[in-house]
Design goal:
Strand order of the largest sheet: 1-2-3-4-5-6-7-8
Largest sheet: 8 strands, antiparallel, barrel
Number of helices: 2
Oligomer: single chain
Radius of gyration: 22 Å
Number of strands: 8
Order of helices and strands: HHEEEEEEEE
Helix content: 10-25%
């Protein structure tokens, strides 16, 4: 009976996963664009009418440089952008690897962001979704990294008073966590101005 319940749950979970893929048009596994590097990325970006999200970005948390470019192989697809790896300290990841996708939302500066979270041989899989926010200057894209939160409930009445024997309370200063996200490095110049923007001296 237990085995049958587990089988039914697995089948149900498979249908849910398939439904999610169908809803978002999200590829289940990443692909690698051969011959892709920073020079190719810059040329492709300069040849197009850039949207605020498009450009070359640096991901400091993963020490990774990537490109965000428009991607819509079919008119019916909702996904509007893909993230392509340019450089990473992880030498097993090839330049041109698609590491995620972005979809617009009803709010202009809010986006659905999917990042692949698992490695399957030479490809990436297991995309996790979060909400990304583009600042008004279009120079940073921040997001809450997707994560699982485990809550532990303890009945302290069962452990008192022996639980707190020899335990001291030390005040702790809460540090403000730095935002996780991408910083745009192109198109922009060394002064932080957008590329091709007229500067008055």
């Amino acid at each position: 009976m237990l085995i049958m319940k587990r089988s039914l749950f697995s089948i149900f979970l498979s249908f849910v996963v398939i439904a999610v893929w169908a809803k978002t048009d999200l590829p289940e596994q990443s692909v690698v664009i051969p011959g892709y590097d920073e020079k190719v990325a810059r040329e492709r970006l300069l040849e197009s009418d850039l949207q605020p999200l498009e450009g070359i970005w640096y991901y400091p948390n993963e020490n990774m440089t990537l490109t965000i470019e428009r991607w819509q192989p079919e008119p019916s697809h909702k996904i509007g952008y893909r993230l392509l790896l340019i450089d990473s300290e992880d030498l097993e990841l090839l330049p041109g690897t698609v590491i995620g996708y972005i979809e617009e939302s009803a709010v202009n500066n809010k986006f659905h962001l999917w990042l692949y979270s698992q490695r399957n041989k030479v490809t990436l899989c297991g995309p996790l979704e979060c909400v990304a926010t583009l600042n008004k200057e279009g120079t940073s894209l921040t997001f809450d990294p997707p994560h699982w939160e485990v809550k532990l409930r303890v009945n302290f009445a069962r452990f008192l008073p022996s639980l707190f024997r020899g335990v001291s309370v030390v005040p702790q200063v809460e540090k403000e966590p730095l935002p996780v996200g991408f910083k745009k490095i192109f198109p922009a110049d060394g002064n932080g101005n957008k590329f091709n923007k007229v500067r008055y001296l």
